[in-house]
Amino acid sequence: MMQTEFEFTLPKGYLDANENLHRTGVMRLARAMDEIVPMNDPRVKMNPAYATVVILARVIVKLGALEEVTPAVIEGMFAGDLDYLQKFYRQINGLEEEQA
């Protein structure tokens, strides 16, 4: 059976409004719709880089004790954790470029 969900641990962790730290999570493989739907989001139309935020919010199915991972959660992450998640996304979805 093909693995479609992957566990991760953020380097720093997401601090919620109550100062609770969330570090472990689960990301699922992306589907075509995960990359298509954000293109209709007005925030993405104004700033194409925002697509990353919307896509990550769609594919992260669990983060610590949070009930839901929204674009606002992704926005509130430390830069190092966002970079980690972008690389993890590319890795599990086979989007990494081959090293020369």
Quickly list its features.
100 residues, alpha+beta, 3-stranded antiparallel β-sheet, 5 helices, globular
Task: Give a written overview of the molecule.
With 100 residues, this protein is α+β, with helices and mostly antiparallel strands. The protein has one domain. Helices cover 38% and strands 23% of the residues. It contains five helices and three strands; from the N terminus they run ββαααβαα. The chain has a three-stranded antiparallel sheet. A hairpin with a 5-residue loop joins β1 and β2. The chain is globular and about 35 Å long.
**Structure class:** alpha+beta
Element order: H for helix, E for strand: EEHHHEHH
Percentage of residues in helical conformation: 25-40%
* Average of pLDDT: 94
Distance between the termini: 32 Å
Q: What's the shape?
A: globular
Sheet with most strands: strand arrangement: 1-2-3
Please give the domain count: 1
The whole-angstrom Rg is: 14 Å
Indicate the proportion of strand residues: 15-25%
- Unreliable segments of 5+ consecutive residues: none
Oligomer: single chain
Give the helix tally: 5
What's the arrangement of secondary structure elements?
Layout: E1 5-15, E2 21-28, H1 32-36, H2 42-46, H3 51-59, E3 60-63, H4 71-75, H5 79-92
Antiparallel strand pairs: 1-2, 2-3
Task: Describe the structure concisely.
This protein has one domain (5-92). It is built from 5 helices and 3 strands.
